[in-house]
Task: inverse folding
């Protein structure tokens, strides 16, 4: 058993725990690639020759986050930072529009000379 | 997600068209207030609102496409048509300024001395910095094509490097042009020569800056794994825009810098 485990580690450079979690299997490690971290998780196209160039791929996590069925519109779906930015923008929009109307009212007054 | 029996994208309700419209109102009336009452508050407020709108609107488009998968082939086709139509409208925008240049330069008035360049104008040597600028933009056209092929072939590191180089060349052009503007022996106030020169090259420079920003956003997206070898329309749109900017420069160089000197 031990020799089989060490042999697999030698060949595949895979983190030991994922084999333990799935139990010992005699053959090919089937669909385990998602749990491999020694070599980076690769998106289909990103088959470059270097390892871990400028960060890991967080797109699948973000896809899960943005695809939750909670009825929240896209511009607020990330939660607090979205809400803060939206409220700031809306405050500037409404405040700015009112300020603009006041400025235009005064600008429209005839010049008394 | 609601299930739909079609491949099109029914967008979520969004506040950004409203905030963008108000930003336009604030910028334009702010400009008038600046001219007449010497206060820039309204105009600056409008500009900030415009930047906030652009950031959030385009952030949402990225979320809808990359994270929610709404950019199906028919949707992407629509986006392609949209970008092509936008660039076409920009072509017409520049056509106007070229029309103005040729109107004034093909039949120079007696007030100019009946010649082009007008009497008293010392033009820039087209074979000095302007020629370097031409080489810089042409090279950037090569590097952006290299970046495209790298993305299509899944070469992550090369894509990042070639895209960075493209942006660097764009910034180098802007820097060189800024130096030229500073050192130029004539100003925008120097008759119709100055007007046509600085308005045409000025708007072009603005488009180089916009194009560089677009490419920079694409670089960030490429680093964050947004693009796949099959689907990277954001990058293609940026590359189209960049080639358009390059072609406009070539016309500017031939017409204003070379023929007009």
Result:
């Amino acid at each position: 058993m031990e020799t089989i485990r060490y042999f697999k580690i030698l060949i595949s450079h895979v983190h030991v725990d994922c084999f333990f979690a799935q139990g010992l299997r005699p053959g090919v490690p089937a669909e385990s690639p998602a749990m491999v971290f020694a070599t980076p998780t690769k998106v289909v196209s990103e088959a470059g020759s270097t390892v871990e160039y400028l960060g890991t791929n967080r797109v699948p996590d973000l896809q899960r986050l943005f695809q939750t069925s909670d009825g929240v519109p896209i511009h607020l779906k990330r939660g607090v930072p979205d809400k803060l930015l939206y409220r700031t923008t809306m405050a500037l929009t409404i405040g700015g529009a009112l300020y603009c109307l006041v400025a235009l009212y005064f600008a429209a007054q005839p010049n008394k000379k | 997600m609601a299930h739909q029996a079609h491949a099109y994208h029914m967008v979520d309700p969004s506040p950004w068209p409203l905030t963008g419209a108000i930003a336009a109102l604030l910028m334009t009336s702010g400009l008038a207030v600046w001219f007449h009452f010497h206060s820039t508050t309204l105009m600056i407020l409008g500009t900030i609102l415009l930047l906030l709108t652009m950031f959030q609107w385009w952030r949402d488009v990225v979320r809808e496409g990359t994270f929610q998968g709404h950019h199906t082939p028919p949707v992407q086709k629509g986006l392609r048509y949209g970008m092509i139509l936008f660039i076409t409208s920009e072509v017409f925008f520049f056509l106007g300024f070229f029309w103005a240049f040729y109107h004034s330069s093909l039949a120079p008035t007696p007030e100019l001395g009946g010649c082009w360049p007008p009497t008293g104008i010392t033009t820039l040597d087209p074979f000095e910095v302007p020629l370097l600028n031409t080489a810089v933009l042409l090279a950037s056209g090569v590097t952006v094509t290299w970046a495209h092929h790298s993305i299509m072939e899944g070469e992550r590191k090369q894509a990042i490097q070639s895209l960075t180089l493209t942006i660097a060349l764009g910034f180098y052009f802007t820097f060189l042009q800024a130096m030229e503007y500073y050192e130029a022996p004539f100003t925008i106030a120097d008759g119709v020569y100055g007007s046509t020169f600085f308005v045409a090259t000025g708007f072009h420079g603005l488009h180089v800056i916009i194009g560089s920003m677009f490419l920079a956003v694409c670089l960030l997206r490429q680093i964050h794994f947004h693009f796949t070898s099959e689907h990277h329309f954001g990058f293609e749109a940026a590359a189209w825009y960049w080639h358009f900017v390059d072609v406009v420069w070539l016309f500017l160089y031939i017409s204003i810098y070379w023929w007009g000197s």
Notes: Residues 1-70 of chain B form a domain with the Helix Hairpins fold (CATH 1.10.287.70). Helices of chain B lie at 16-37, 41-67, 73-106, 129-152, 156-183, 191-223, 233-259. Chain B is about 75% helix and 0% strand. The mean pLDDT of chain B is 97.
